[in-house]
Amino acid sequence: VITDTKEFNEKLHALTQTTEHEEEIQKMLRDVTQKGQHFITRAKFKIFDVLTDEQMEKLQNLIDNPPDYVKTIIAEIKKLRGENTDSMPVYLKSWKPGEPIPEEYKKHRASRKMFPAEEK
Fold first, then answer.
1. How far apart, in whole angstroms, are the C-alpha atoms of residue 120 and residue 113?
2. Alpha carbons 38 and 32: distance in angstroms, whole number
3. Within a 13 Å sphere around the CA of 48, how many CA atoms are in the beta-carbon half?
4. Which of 11, 28, 74, 77 is the most buried (most CB within 10 A)?
């Protein structure tokens, strides 16, 4: 059992390097990654859906203007993770501290009615 993220990333990277010539395995890895990204996007939307407009505004303000202690924590997390997004697997790029609310979600939220009127 691998409990260390860095060790897991190294093993996954080694697997990816040794199987580059095996197109079927590469396709499977891409499919799993794509499904994971899709799941994470849907999960974010469902989480954001429970927030009121006022709460969404407060969340956006916190993301845009985090307090200094949060900036320090984010920097420490990135340092501990050795965060280099170019070499990072896609599933680890799915959420990062300080990440903004996705624009596609903002459009989705603006386009829907919170309490639709009953149709007659």
1. 17
2. 10
3. 23
4. 74
| List of long-range contacts for 63-68, beta carbons under 8 Å, 24+ apart | 63/98, 63/99, 63/100, 63/101, 64/100, 66/98
Torsion angle (degrees, nearest 10) of CA 83, 14, 93, 41 = -170
Entry pTM: 0.40
In degrees rounded to 5, what are phi and psi of residue 29?
-60, -40
Report the residue count for the chain. 120
Q: Which two tokens stand for residue 9?
A: 């990333």
Tens of pLDDT, residues 41-93: 888 888 888 888 899 889 889 888 889 998 888 888 777 776 555 555 555 55
Helices and strands (H, E) in the chain, number of each type = 5, 0
Under a CB-based contact definition with an 8 Å cutoff, are residues 102 and 63 in contact?
A: no
Token code pair at residue 43: 């999960």
